[in-house]
Amino acid sequence: MTDGTATFARELVRTSGRSMAPLIRDRSLVACMPVVPGELRPGDIIVFRREGRLVAHRIIGIRTGSAGQELREKGDNTFRGRWIPASSVTGRAVELIEGSAKRSLDAGGCDRRLRLLTRWSALEADACDAYLKLVARNSAFRAAGLALVPAALVALLFRRQVFRLLISAYPARVTVNPASAIGFVLGCFRSLFGGPRPESGSQESPDWERVLDAAGSLGVLPMLTAAGGAGMPAVFAAQARKSAYRAALNHDNAMKALGEISKVLAPVAPYAVLKGPYLYELLYRGRYPREYDDVDILIPRSKVREAVAALGAAGYEPVGGRFGMAFLLAAHFHVALDSARKGWPRLELHWSLVDRANLYRIPEEECFERLGRFTVYGVEFGALSPEDEFMYLCLHAAKHGVLNRLGLDRGYAPEWFCAEASGNRLTWYADIGFFLDRHMGSLDWGRMRARIAGWNVGDDVAACLGLLNAFAPGSLATEALARLGLPHGSAAPAANGRQRVSGSMAWAMRAQPFLLFRPIRLAHCGGLFFPSLRRLLAYHGAKHAWLAPFLYVFHPFHMALRLAGLAGTGSRHGHNRT
Question: pTM of the full predicted structure?
Answer without folding.
Answer: 0.76
